[in-house]
């Protein structure tokens, strides 16, 4: 899997600011960053934890890796992806 870092989150936030948080952007992010999982949802669907990065239109969460069901985390060392959560 690709490395999820604070710098990657900021880079993704810049792309989302330019291109918008949509399925097409997620597809392009997956192509640019193979090995990193990307997901799109509404921020209303996320309860915890707090986002690792916030913008007026989109919050960014880390997708944790593990042996069980996918979950959100704030730990970059165990993160395998980034969730783009659209703020409505």
Report on this model:
By secondary structure, this protein is α+β, with helices and mostly antiparallel strands. The chain has two helices and five strands. Strands 1, 2, 3, 4 and 5 form a five-stranded mixed sheet that branches. A hairpin with a 3-residue loop joins strand 2 and strand 3. The chain is globular, with a radius of gyration of 12 Å. The mean pLDDT is 93.
Order of helices and strands: HHEEEEE
Uncertain runs are none
Helices, by number, come to 2
Describe the oligomeric state of these chains in a short phrase. Answer: single chain
Major sheet attributes: 5 strands, mixed
- Number of DSSP strands? 5
| Secondary structural class | alpha+beta
Mean pLDDT value: 93
Strand content: 25-35%
C-alpha-based Rg, rounded: 12 Å
End-to-end distance, in Å?
Answer: 31 Å
Morphology call: globular
Give the helix proportion (percent range): 25-40%
Give a quick summary of the entry.
The chain is an alpha+beta fold and 88 residues long.
Q: Would you spell out the secondary-structure blueprint of this structure?
A:
Elements: H1 6-19, H2 23-32, E1 37-42, E2 53-54, E3 58-64, E4 71-73, E5 79-86
Parallel strand pairs: 1-5
Antiparallel strand pairs: 2-3, 3-4, 3-5
């Amino acid at each position: 899997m690709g490395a999820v870092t604070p710098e990657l989150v900021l880079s993704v936030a810049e792309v989302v600011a330019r291109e918008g948080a949509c399925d097409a952007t997620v597809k392009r992010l997956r192509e640019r960053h193979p090995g990193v999982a990307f997901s799109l949802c509404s921020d209303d669907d996320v309860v915890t934890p707090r986002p690792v990065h916030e913008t007026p239109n989109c919050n960014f969460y880390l997708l944790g890796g593990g042996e069980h069901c996918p979950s959100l985390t704030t730990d970059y060392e165990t993160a395998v992806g980034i969730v783009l959560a659209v703020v409505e």
